[in-house]
Design goal:
- The complex is a heterodimer of chains A (469) and B (282).
- Chain A has 469 residues and is α/β, with parallel strands linked by helices.
- Chain A contains 18 helices and 16 strands.
- Chain A has helices spanning 2-7, 22-25, 38-45, 55-58, 66-74, 78-86, 92-98, 120-134, 156-167, 184-187, 196-208, 225-231, 260-269, 295-306, 327-336, 404-408, 438-441, 446-465; strands at residues 148-152, 171-175, 212-214, 234-237, 243-244, 257-259, 287-291, 311-315, 339-341, 344-351, 357-370, 376-380, 386-388, 392-395, 399-400, 433-435.
- In chain A, the strands form 4 sheets. In chain A, strands 3-2-1-4-16 form a 5-stranded parallel sheet, with helices on both faces.
- Chain B has 2 domains: 2-90, Elongation Factor Tu (Ef-tu), domain 3, CATH 2.40.30; 101-257, Rossmann fold, CATH 3.40.50.80.
- Helix content of chain B is 30%, strand content 30%.
- Chain B contains 9 helices and 16 strands.
- In chain B, helix 5 runs parallel beside helix 6.
- Classes of the chains: A alpha/beta (469), B alpha/beta (282).
- Chains A and B meet through strand 5 and helix 13 of A and helix 1, strand 8, strand 14, helix 8 and helix 9 of B.
- Bound molecules: flavin-adenine dinucleotide (2 copies) and FE2/S2 (inorganic) cluster (FES).
- FE2/S2 (inorganic) cluster binds at residues 215-218, 220-225, 235, 237 of chain B.
Chain lengths: 469, 282
């Protein structure tokens, strides 16, 4: 292998991703990263060394055969490449855009030791978009098993579980609380990172497999899980982590304080950026502070700029080095003009006599000893109070599991934080009930949620038929 | 799509009654719960209380006051039309038990949601005194419907144009002076619920109110509907809409309800202008 490597001329840098200009894009909702051309893709695929030990593959939560699909691109077999990815990943057009590749596949790329790693995500997106454009060839479906499965929640984990079960010949109905399917992909992740037409194209593909999706159906209200079990042979819970956490500081219910979920839902799902053409309003303010340092915070801060805020701040209690957001999202946010106040802990939201936000009182922090997560924990500095003058505050400090299903389901074991307890195969403490995705793991990633849906589909299949998928 | 089976104006251009075909919602609906609807693809999601339901016919009845763009646009619907989305039943049902003597107070459009609650309370064996009130005679509705579901009905109008002059709180005070009730349930405009709570607090009578904070999803996902109850933040859509009225921070609720007043006005103005351009038809 070492010899082979020597012969190959190594291109040090990733083939650049065509992108919208930062200044222009910070004011529109169109997609930022425009995607590779076929030429870009060939060039980038050509950088892959085809390592025999496939380190990249170990970094992929669903073990996509990365070297194989890249080799197919090198050989010009683009249909073959997407087929190869789809053996393991049902949502490549989504994952190619939003997976944290830098901490997964690309982190382990051999090239990455000295140069840029191969742009695996960009290649995945390229072949997936090409296929969506051409029209997807449906995979074969097994003969009907006569078994019925209910899937609760239509996020990546529910959709994946549903599509795998349908392929195995089961009749699947998905129940979704909102008026469209897609979960966070529709209501949370902004249009400029993940166009909604891409998500809906993936949803359509799931429907084409014969999966029935019933929107406007809140399980726990219209039917409980126990009632579903009377009509279905098994139930999969993929209800996500949709419960917003707040800081519990004074002033948090003032007018102009949003949870990130609300701020993003109004914008993405309800299209408040098109108000008054669309009926749902949003208050943007001129100066916005977003609390938190994850992807959700970056999305909210970048959305605020696009909605017309003149200043958008990320307020984070640790330092730049500890930011949990993907590096690319942080870079994009900076380029677009999002400002960062690191080592800053909000203590109080100030309001005027009508209850409107006028500012946020904060304390400066220093980094102390590492906490349980291994990150150095912030310690506030006495007497360092200052006021950040803002008129909208978006709280993006995390989400927990929605309690509606757990509250209304008998015999479902939960963790202390309210997550559903499930083993690796998705089995919960309740016979016939499986769970996966954010509702089990807490807020995580699209690919982990999809992977959990896949694993559960396999074990539901075994449970229903006795056969291994 | 969900079909409008019946639409009547209870008060011309102000109050509308809708009967919607939604068998699954009707099958599970209980007193005190609400639905969220969206008229069309551009529409806002708005919550409306379930005013009545018929499990056999598979229908849900709503009464809406034309408050802004969405409820005005709804006013244009006719029997046979459809609305895009209709989700429910949402919220916790009103807790029903035999308390003894219960007074329900419905003000304005709030009369409708007290209807199924009064019925359920009476079925549970309570003596149910229902007070209904409106600003003026034309805005009063469901007198007969209410009479059927309670033990005694008392009617009032703010301006005295019908039965008697006085606020619902005036009538409530008389009823409480007569004999202290075991529970009061009050539904109506926020100032009315607040006034009822101030009064019943003096009498030491437990009071349930149904809160109408602004909502988006109605499933506990966004936190838009949050309100402070007993010093704690609660989500109206999943923890409510019923709360102990004596614990509710009504001032905060009022401020948060006015959050989008400017945009709402803008949206309604544009809508009425557009309708006028089309000769009043839409
Ligand atoms: C703003 C934001 C940005 C993100 N960015 C990224 C990113 O860049 N990369 C990445 O990998 N991950 C990202 N994530 C995380 C990722 O989106 C989630 O980990 C993933 O969506 C979880 O999938 P899921 O299927 O478990 O749940 P969800 O996507 O949350 O879907 C759950 C669905 O269940 C529905 N539901 C809930 N309760 C009920 C009920 N009682 N009845 C019926 N339906 C119900 C919900 O309405 C929802 O549609 C982001 C998350 C957010 C919020
Ligand atoms: C649980 C609940 C039950 C309700 N039941 C009824 C009912 O049975 N009959 C009825 O007439 N009204 C009811 N309402 C109020 C109704 O939802 C609002 O009048 C409606 O949303 C107004 O929409 P609009 O576009 O016509 O008016 P807008 O001009 O948008 O708003 C007028 C006022 O309504 C409130 N409002 C606006 N948007 C929302 C929203 N998305 N959610 C909640 N409130 C909003 C605001 O306080 C606003 O100032 C209920 C509200 C809640 C929360
Ligand atoms: S309306 Fe979103 S949480 Fe209640």
């Amino acid at each position: 292998m070492a010899e082979e490597k020597k012969k190959k001329v190594i291109i040090h840098n990733k083939t650049p991703m065509p992108a919208q200009d930062p200044v222009a894009r910070s004011r529109n909702f169109q997609e930022v990263a425009l995607g590779y051309t076929e030429e870009d893709a060939r060039l980038e695929a050509g950088r892959c060394l085809q390592c025999k030990n496939e380190p990249c593959r170990q970094g992929c939560p669903v073990e996509v055969n990365i070297p194989a699909f890249i080799k197919l691109i090198q050989e010009g077999d683009l249909d073959g490449a997407i087929a190869r990815i789809k053996e393991n990943n049902p949502l490549p057009a989504v994952c190619g855009r939003v997976c944290p590749q830098e901490s997964q596949c690309e982190k382990y790329c051999t090239l990455g030791a000295k140069h840029d790693p191969v742009g695996i995500g960009r290649l995945e997106r390229f072949v997936a978009d090409r296929e969506l454009g051409l029209g997807v060839t449906l995979p074969g479906k097994a003969a009907s098993t006569g078994k019925k499965v209910a899937v609760v929640g239509s996020g990546p984990s529910g959709l994946t579980c549903a599509s795998d079960l349908a392929k195995l010949g089961h009749a699947v109905t998905v129940f979704e609380a909102l008026h469209v399917a897609g979960g966070v992909l529709m209501y949370g992740i902004p249009e400029f990172r993940l166009p909604k037409r891409v998500v809906q194209a993936e949803v359509e593909n799931v429907k084409k497999l014969g999966v029935e999706i019933q929107v406007n159906s809140v399980i726990g209200r219209i039917d409980t899980v126990d009632e579903l079990l009377e009509r279905y042979d098994a139930v999969y819970l993929g209800t996500g982590a949709g419960l917003p956490y707040f800081m519990d500081i004074p002033g948090e219910n003032a007018c102009g304080v949003y949870s990130a979920n609300e701020f993003l839902t109004r914008t993405n799902l309800m299209k408040a950026y098109l108000f008054p053409e669309c009926d749902t309003p949003i208050r943007v303010g001129s100066r916005v502070a977003v609390l938190g340092g994850g992807n959700v915070a970056m999305d909210a801060a970048r959305t605020a700029l696009r909605l017309g805020a003149s200043e958008s701040w990320i307020v984070y209690r640790r330092s730049e080095a500890e930011l949990p957001a993907r590096h690319e999202e942080y870079e994009h946010a900076r380029e677009e003009g999002v400002k960062f106040s690191f080592l800053t802990a909000p203590t109080r939201i100030l309001e005027d006599d009508k209850g409107w936000v006028t500012g946020m009182e904060c304390l400066r922090c220093e980094l102390g000893e590492p906490d349980a997560s291994g990150r150095r924990s912030p310690v506030t500095v006495c007497g360092s109070e200052f006021v950040l003058p803002v008129d909208v505050v978006v709280v993006a400090i995390g989400q927990g599991p929605n309690p509606l299903v757990p509250r209304t389901t008998k015999g479902l074991a939960l963790t202390k934080r309210g997550n559903i307890v499930a083993d690796e195969s998705g089995a919960t403490s309740k016979p016939g009930v499986y769970a996966g995705g954010d509702v089990v793991t807490g807020a995580a990633t699209v690919i982990l949620a999809a992977g959990a849906g896949k694993a559960a589909a396999r074990s539901i299949h075994r449970h229903l038929t006795g056969a291994t998928a | 799509m969900y079909k409008v089976l019946k639409k009547t104006e209870l008060a011309p251009s102000i109050l509308d009654l809708y009967v919607i075909e939604a068998p699954k919602v009707a099958a599970k609906a209980r007193a005190g719960q609400f639905i969220i609807l969206r008229i069309d693809g551009q529409g806002e999601r708005i919550p409306l209380t379930i005013a009545d339901f018929d499990r056999e016919k598979g229908t849900v009845t709503l009464v809406a006051q034309r408050a802004g763009k969405t409820t005005t646009q709804m006013g244009k619907l006719r029997a046979g039309d459809s609305i895009a989305d209709f989700v429910g039943p949402l919220g916790e049902p009103t807790h029903i038990e035999n308390y003894g003597r219960v007074v329900t107070v419905g003000g304005g459009v709030g009369v409708a949601p007290t209807h199924p609650i009064a019925r359920a309370l009476k079925e549970a064996g309570n003596e149910v005194i229902s007070i209904i009130g409106a600003r003026t005679r034309d805005l009063l509705f469901w007198e007969e419907e209410m009479r059927k579901v309670c033990t005694r009905l008392l009617v009032t109008t703010d301006d005295g144009s019908y039965v008697r002059k006085g606020f619902v709180t005036d009538v409530l005070k008389e009823v409480m002076d007569e004999k202290k009730p075991d529970l009061v349930v009050a539904i109506g405009p926020q100032p009315m619920m607040r006034a009822v709570c101030n009064l019943t607090r003096e009498y030491g009578v437990k009071t349930i109110v149904s809160l109408n904070s602004i909502m988006v999803d109605g499933t506990g996902m966004c936190g838009c509907c949050r309100v402070t109850v007993g010093g704690k933040t609660r989500f109206v859509c999943v923890d409510g809409p019923d709360f102990d009225g004596h614990e509710v921070d009504f001032a905060e609720l009022a401020r948060r309800s006015a959050l989008y007043r400017e945009q709402e006005k803008d949206s309604l103005d544009r809508y009425t202008q557009r309708c006028q351009c089309h000769g009043g038809e839409h």
